[in-house]
Amino acid sequence: MSSIEDLFSCDNKFFFYIAKFIKLVLLNLMMIVFSLPIFTIGSAFAALYAVMLKVHTDEEGNVITEFWKAFRDNFKQATYIWLHFLGIGAVLFLVYWLLRIGVLPGGNVLQWVVYLLAVVVFSSAMWSFILQSRYENEIRATMRNGFAFSFVFLPATLLMLVPAAIPVVLLIVNLRLWPIVLVCGISGPALLQAAFYSQIFKRLDVMAKGNDKTEIDDEEIDDEEIDDEEIDDEEIDETEDSLSESD
User: What is the pTM of this model?
Assistant: First the structure.
């Protein structure tokens, strides 16, 4: 009897992973639907990264509600960031196309340069949306940090690019694989990415707490110095009063 109860228990690992998979499917569908207007792709990715961090740490609630809230909260800034990177990507694509048809000189060498720049731009955009989903900052600062993170955390960046390429590779290999992309082709890779950027966020949070503790300790030292000065002043006043009385 207990084995049957354990089988249908909410703590059962089977149902736990089934629930996770259902959440991934829901998030994948929401990501696709919210990206259909094209200009909303940035805020959709920011919302996906925000919710996926909670899914990775098992802190998620209703993923639909949380996705919608994160989408609204990040809409303005994430849309500006997306449009900036979209413009840069359009310029790179134009240069690549002109190189391919022979209008611009340079041939294969410049094409490889464009490929490299495209990877840098994609990595910077990825990190910018991840940072936007977590921290409040100015748009330019978020984009600068996204560019810096792609190099400062280069090993993690390269590992995060691998799952990001999965849906593209699947469609290039065979368009008939589109059902996989529809079900979890975006949210699945995003969950793998969350395993990397969650660790980086933990390190940043520890560093931030350390800085806060140092500032608090400095303030306490200053307060103690002020108290000592007040005590010294009081002692001086008492000494002066006793001298005046003796006179």
Answer: 0.79
